[in-house]
Request: fold
Amino acid sequence: MNEADKPLIHLVDDDEAVRHSASFMLRLSGFRVQTHKDGVSFLDELKTLEDGCILLDVQMPKMNGLQVQKELNVRGCEMPVVVLTGHGDVSVAVQAMKSGAINFVEKPYEKQVLLKALEEACEEMRNRSHGALQKADAEKRLAHLTPRETEVLEGLVDGLTNKAIANTLDISPRTVEIHRANLMEKLGVDNLSGALRLAFAAGHGQ
Reply:
């Protein structure tokens, strides 16, 4: 594959060490990378940038990742976004996905998890023209869930932890885990972001 055919990642992170290490790793993995030192400078350059996928850190000065994402939506930017969140910061991740992020990856990230998220984002970029198709596919998959599994999914869409979902539904956290595992299997996804993406595509949590 020649250089121009490699997918482009716009890495937006205020931490120079992260920019350096992540861009090195991504280049080795077959991506092209453009780094941006914060959200403000990224937005300033947006009009002149080549289309690609955006890897966006949430914790940044001046403008955090969610604010940057909101501004991207206002400007009608179609580039898929993957957000980097702090460990265990599920509510922020859910908020980002409600605003249209394709995926989230928790810091400190595992290389394979990050690469898989970015590959999915690049795939999404290629498939953007199939929006209506995605909604129909998501609805079809969600139709296989039991009412209880749907309730658990709604809790996840609201950014609740397993424990909070258990309290809301008056069941044990262990039961929530079982429903969560079952619904992921039925939906054909292997992580929370995959389940959320389907839920949002079908119009849940709007």
The longest strand covers residues 8-12. The mean pLDDT is 90. The CA atoms of residues 84 and 100 lie 14 Å apart. The two ends are 40 Å apart (CA to CA).
